[in-house]
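Late entry, evening session. Most of the bench is empty. Finally got around to the prediction I had been postponing all week. Sequence below, unchanged from the version circulated by S.P.
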Amino acid sequence: MDTSFISPPARLPIWLQVGLWVTWRVTGKALLPPRLLAWYPKAAFSSGVMEALVAHADKNLSARILKLVRMQASFSAACPFCIDMNSQRFRDYDINQQELAAIQGLVSAEDVTTFTERERLALRYAQLISATPLSFPGEIMRQIKSAFNEREIVILATTAAQVNYWARLIQALGAPPAGFMEPGEWPEGS
């Protein structure tokens, strides 16, 4: 049963049904947010395009660092759906419990010896991108610019911003977590 603020429309355009089938094939879930977006098909289409084109790995940015960024943005935005979706299989990315505690804000990322300096900076950048009001202190940006090239900065920014888009949209529609993680798998403190 869906517990969102609104229900999906009874009838969906055929092209959106195809998109939902693709989403189901990729995620293994009949996700509620895209079905809710069917009330305004342009939003469903544009959101689907954005999701299809988001970076999950790049020649210089590993899948791990982008997973860390998605997880950090999810926790920073306090979005249960996003935490559920973006934290699934975190162990597959060699993210350990201490790193997870840092992402959750339970310990300082500076105290986690397994993070590289680039990972620490990427996590900090994701926090800044996810904060309200937005603020990008000069010293932090100098550090980020010295550790990442322009392409990498754009990928980090768009990855965190994409999570924030979904976090705000999903929470505004009241969509609950989709059940990607079993209760025993959820990170402590979530």
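Two things to note before I forget:
The first helix runs from residue 14 to 27.
The chain has a mean pLDDT of 92.
Will write this up properly tomorrow.
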